[in-house]
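#struct-pred
JK: can someone run the complex with pyridoxal-5'-phosphate? inputs below
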Amino acid sequence: MSKDNLRFDSKLIHGGQIPDKAYGAVVPPIYQTSTFKQDSLGVHKGYEYSRSGNPTRAALEGSLASIESGNFGFAFASGLAAIDAVMKLLNPGDEVISADNLYGGTHRMFTQIYQDKGVKFHFVDAGNPENIRPLVNAKTRIIWIESPTNPLLQVVDIKKIAEESKQHKILLVVDNTFASPYLQRPLEMGADIVMHSATKYIGGHSDLVMGALIVSDKELADRLYFIQKATGAIPGPMDCFLALRGIKTLALRMERHCENAAVVAAFLESHPRVEKVYWPGLKSNPDYALATAQMKHYGGVVSFVIKGNDREEVVGFVEKLELFSLAESLGGVESLVAYPTSMSHGGMTQDERERMGVTDGLIRLSVGIEDSEDLVADLANALKS
Ligand code: PLP
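RT: done, structure tokens with the ligand placed:
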């Protein structure tokens, strides 16, 4: 049976994996080594130095390629390092059309690093794909989107935007961090590069920081491999092992994250102290139909605004929570609460945040895999006062 034809849940366990030839280890071993002995000058067993390649990283990269329906996977030291590697494909004068609803750190890299180096960015509301065409010109190299977005969970029509990018021979990059490959596989919808903060659902246990890129095209893969090797932002073997272990339970975890998020979103929507809930699985959400068509389920992140929409309300609320820990990040098994204004989107100006809808009363929940009744009880208690 070819491992290429496995169904998704089986790929999580077996996809892209090469059985261990040395001792038959069922789990890819942690090759905690910086270098590899050469039998003679240039004669080696496939690995020379762990920046250019390491067997544990290769096992993870094979798995990433398999579960995102791509041919090549690349692991990086963080999600931002993965984004940086994509940006290094560009030259001064090149242009990027980027969604304006974006993780704050991505926006910060675009506007405070690459803009200064001569790359021009056009930020648009990618929720309406029609907004993209008027900005395309001979210098456009990349369209960058995120779906669902951090933190407002906007869903972007990947297929429609891929049609546009293909027509103009522009690379479409999709940050698939919030969906994970279990819920959505952008390469199957026509994207050219899938990017992940593997720190989140791929790792799944809040115990590593990592990024990933997955592509199908060989020439693009060669360019990204060269950047990975030449600039060296690679993860260590231990983190690759942890990410591989996380991937094995991705389907089980995502199912539970999504089920719990549905319960939490419904509770918040019916609560008199809550002004607005952002979760694409709510029928009241404007992106509900698109999310239903594009995703397997609606994801484990729920954002909401407490009535009054101000910082004081938020402080009172988060201080009373007991199960949801106030912390950066998302996608781990434990529930977290974050305040985008000063955390994930703190690198943006107040003006930029307000334009994208990140207001002072916005709270983001990463709903974990605990019992949903306990999570609702914790939220109900914190919303009491
Ligand atoms: N993309 C998204 C959607 C994110 O949420 C994050 C981090 O929160 C990143 C990219 C950056 O990833 P990392 O923190 O692993 O560098």
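RT: quick notes.
Residues 78-80, 103, 105-106, 146, 150, 175, 177-178, 197, 199, 209, 211, 344 surround pyridoxal-5'-phosphate (CB under 6 Å).
The chain has a mean pLDDT of 96.
JK: thanks, will look after standup
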